[in-house]
Amino acid sequence: MALTTALTRRLGIRHPVISAPMHLVAGGALASAVSAAGGLGLIGGGYGDASWLDQQFDIAAGQRIGVGFITWSLRKSPPLLTDALKRRPVAVMLSFGDPRPFVDEIRAAGALLICQCQNIDHVWDAIDVKADIIVAQGAEAGGHGALRGTLSFVPEAADLIAAHAPDAILVAAGGIADGRGLAAALALGAEGALVGTRFWASAEALVHRRHHEAAIAASGDETIRTTVVDIARQIPWPRGFTARVCRNAFTQRWHGREDELERAAAVEGPRYRQAFTAGDPDNTGVWFGEAAGIIRSIEPAAAIVETMAQQAEAALKRIAS
Ligand SMILES: Cc1cc2nc3c(=O)[nH]c(=O)nc-3n(C[C@H](O)[C@H](O)[C@H](O)COP(=O)(O)O)c2cc1C
Fold it and tell me: Are 247 and 304 part of one and the same domain?
């Protein structure tokens, strides 16, 4: 039994696994390793650093990869998309905001449009713009997201898409880090998984060693959804989105004292950034999701893709028998 799904057919890949476009974490090395292993790797365009993005596309040259952007931020610098499309990505993922301003340009360049959604209103938006791939992201996810749990959000999105956009392909995200999660995503009606935290904990991810160590030591209980990482960094996220990060001294100190942090951001922001660069696991945001609880080692991305696909196949066989 091979895990051939509508997603593998549409993308021309072997395994129904997409690596998430994690800001400054998912560079060209990670994206190309995932694609080379039979998944689809996405470079994390994030808030948009044109020269970083250019460098990462160079690193991934020759590999079929895609790119993702934080939509509300892209509105401030649309040329980033124009430049990225010149690199002929297979797909562009938009998340966290209205995709409409960018849809025509993405289609005209021949790239597939992936819309990541955090609630049913977002799924309607993705249906409305005729997204090729719709990602239903549950709140277990590392990084930014919202409130819905993966287990009920994915099948609800699946029903909506089957009724109103049968050509769109549904992908699940949030808490998927091994073959059990991938098998569950398929059972819920998705055609594959978009995986962040597990690839954040890979050899190719641009993550400080001490942050990796913190994730390996953490249980899934040791994360929190919060806005304090964005307040400290003075990044104006729209209401409704929070970030899931490691629960540590920094979040313990500021979560619940957001107004105070806002007033102290001129001092706390540089402290946060300095600690982040130094790999301090206590006094900055350490960005991983609940799936950290099932991650025990840092592995090459190719091994993660292959193991996940094999384990999912085995899990589905076991259930079927
Ligand atoms: C470190 C990190 C950074 C992320 N950055 C982005 C981002 O820049 N853009 C985006 O669309 N999603 C981002 N995400 C969310 C992912 O797209 C994805 O939804 C999530 O990682 C899936 O859940 P998981 O972490 O449990 O696999 C990020 C996730 C992590 C863990």
Answer: no
pTM: 0.98
Instruction: Give the CA distances from residue 91 to residues 26, 153, 175, in Å, rounded to whole numbers and listed in that order.
Output: 15, 23, 23
186 and 43 housed in the same domain: yes
Domain assignment of residue 274, given as a range = 209-278
What number does the ligand 1 atom closest to the CA of 96 have? 11
Q: Tell me the best of 69, 72, 81, 144 to mutate to test the pocket of ligand 1, counting ligand atoms within 8 Å of each CB and taking the most.
A: 144
Question: Tens digit of pLDDT for each residue in 56-85?
Answer: 999 999 999 999 999 999 999 999 999 999
> Do 140 and 290 contact (CB within 8 A), yes or no?
yes
Question: Between β-strands 242-246 and 223-226, what pairing exists: parallel, antiparallel or unpaired?
Answer: antiparallel
Q: What is the pLDDT of residues 84-111, one digit of tens each?
A: 999 999 999 999 999 999 999 999 999 9
| Neighbouring C-alpha atoms within 13 Å toward the C-beta of 128 | 11
Please give the Cα distance from 293 to 219 (Å, whole number).
4
